[in-house]
Amino acid sequence: MKVEKRVIAITGGARGLGLAMARRLGRQGALVALLDTDADAMDKAVSALHKENVRASAFTVNVADEASVKQAFGAVSASLGPVSGLVNNAGILRDALLVKAKDGKVEKTMSLEQWRSVIDVNLTGVFLCGREAAAQMIEAEHDGVIVNISSISRAGNMGQSNYAAAKAAVVALTTTWAKELARYGIRVGAVAPGFIKTDMTASMRDDMLEKLTSGVPLRRLGDPEHIAQSVAFIIENDYFTGRVIECDGGLRL
After folding, report:
1. What pLDDT digit, counting tens, does each position of 93-149 carry?
2. Annotation says 163 is catalytic
3. DSSP of the chain, one letter per residue?
4. Widest distance between CA atoms in the chain
5. 8 near 231, Cβ under 8 Å?
6. Rounded to whole angstroms, how far apart are CA atoms 33 and 12?
7. How many CB atoms lie within 10 A of CB 158?
8. Counting Cβ atoms within 10 Å, is residue 38 exposed (0-12), middle (13-18) or buried (19+)?
9. Residues 90, 121 contacting (CB under 8 angstroms)
10. Phi and psi (nearest 5°) for 183?
11. Residues 163, 173, 196, 232: which is the catalytic one?
């Protein structure tokens, strides 16, 4: 699908990976709809994108709340037109071990709130936004693409029961939706990033950063632009659906 003059919605679009995606797709002529909870951050992102001649608009949303998602996608359609593309990028972390014990005594466990909050945003949010986007594409009678952002952690990662479960489920949604929505001309793909340069990694000590990258065959972190390239590939390649691009520097060789 050519993105020029197409409305592409990006959740978690105010910063990091989402902003990199918005910049790349916007430079290719897309009408970018940034969806995020942080209105101030979105305003700054839109201002920065406008300076680069990227047509971008901001829409406040809580992806875990059904009413908020419906309102936001309705606002996107009313302002820009029905979406042709969606990138489900919004996500949070609430890391903890399932059970932490010492000398046979349990000291701490992952709380139900830690579990639910990550599942609500990282999985239910993908479901709600994907449903609204698909409905708009079908009713507009045009082709479309949904890209879900998974993670290398979907294979399982210590301290991330909630996050790993959500990101694995996102891949299951991707393959299921690809089968269900193909009849309407809607393709669905996923990207599973590895370790990427973000505000969090930028604040890490050099020794911790070295430990993080030591297991990556390419011996470096990825850039947000690498993930944006992967997203753009899925959107542009009309024969790509139901599959996952692993962009992780070879970490899962």
Report:
1. 999 999 999 999 999 999 999 999 999 999 999 999 999 999 999 999 999 999 999
2. yes
3. ---TT-EEEEETTTSHHHHHHHHHHHHTT-EEEEEES-HHHHHHHHHHHHHTT--EEEEE--TT-HHHHHHHHHHHHHHH-S-SEEEE-------B-SEEEETTEEEEE--HHHHHHHHIIIIIHHHHHHHHHHHHHHHHT--EEEEEE--GGGG--TTBHHHHHHHHHHHHHHHHHHHHHGGGTEEEEEEEE-SB--HHHHTS-HHHHHHHHTTSTTSSPBPHHHHHHHHHHHHH-TT--S-EEEESTTTT-
4. 62
5. no
6. 11
7. 10
8. middle
9. yes
10. -65, -20
11. 163
Give the whole-angstrom CA distance, residue 1 versus residue 236.
Answer: 5
**Rg of the chain over all Cα atoms, to the nearest angstrom:** 18
Q: Token pair for residue 244?
A: 């996952």
Query: Mind listing the pLDDT tens digit for each residue in 71-101?
Result: 999 999 999 999 999 999 999 999 999 999 9
User: Which is it for strands 186-193 and 99-102: parallel, antiparallel or unpaired?
Assistant: unpaired
- Both tokens of residue 178? 């690809």
Identify the sign of the CA torsion 140, 141, 145, 148: positive
Please state whether beta strands 105-109 and 99-102 pair in parallel, antiparallel, or not at all (unpaired).
Answer: antiparallel
* pTM exceeds cut of 0.85: yes
Residue found by looking up tokens 């139901």 in the block: 242
* Chain centroid offset of residue 107 CA: 34
